[in-house]
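CO-FOLDING WORKSHEET

Operator: S.A.
Ligand of interest: flavin mononucleotide
Run index: 162
Mode: holo prediction, single chain
Checklist:
[x] sequence pasted
[x] SMILES validated
[ ] output reviewed
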Amino acid sequence: MRMLQAAVRVPDHGKLVPFRFLRIQGEARHALGEALLARALELDPHASAAALEKDRARFLHAPLIVTVIARLDADHKVPEQEQLLTAGCVCFTLLQAAQALGFGAQWLTGWAAYDATIRGILGVRAEEKIAGFIHIGTARIDAPERDRPDASALLSDWRPDA
Ligand SMILES: Cc1cc2nc3c(=O)[nH]c(=O)nc-3n(C[C@H](O)[C@H](O)[C@H](O)COP(=O)(O)O)c2cc1C
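OUTPUT RECEIVED:
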């Protein structure tokens, strides 16, 4: 709850609270894995055993997965893009809150986040989007560092035409 309370402290234009949480833990992770496997097989009856096993195990790498679901109101004067960005901020804040409390956490989506059948199984409504599955647990290894962009190379100055 502490992590979620931190995660809801995000910039939110219009105070729309354009997000909700769906917790996946315990046995539910296995049930979801079986549903993913069945759907993967339906999408590709020739899928390799390795690919199917990867899908079955997708939600078993951490004890807790918090799904951040964006609740979008396309007719609101606050643009949908801004509502989605707020949900993205929730994902990142949740990630940082989990890490600040000493857990390992990772923001993943994968095909399941965009598949109509899996969305239905998770109860995601038509006007909603899965912003991320935040996997939270105890890190077994330090995540390897990767190359980071050079911020100065991304910076330019706007100047009014003379
Ligand atoms: C919206 C979003 C979705 C992501 N989905 C995946 C994913 O499905 N699979 C994956 O390997 N990484 C995914 N990532 C990347 C990881 O969250 C993470 O950035 C990556 O593992 C590298 O970790 P680092 O950014 O701490 O170096 C996603 C990132 C974002 C922002």
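REVIEW:
The beta strands are 19-25, 64-71, 104-108, 128-137.
The chain has a mean pLDDT of 97.
[x] output reviewed
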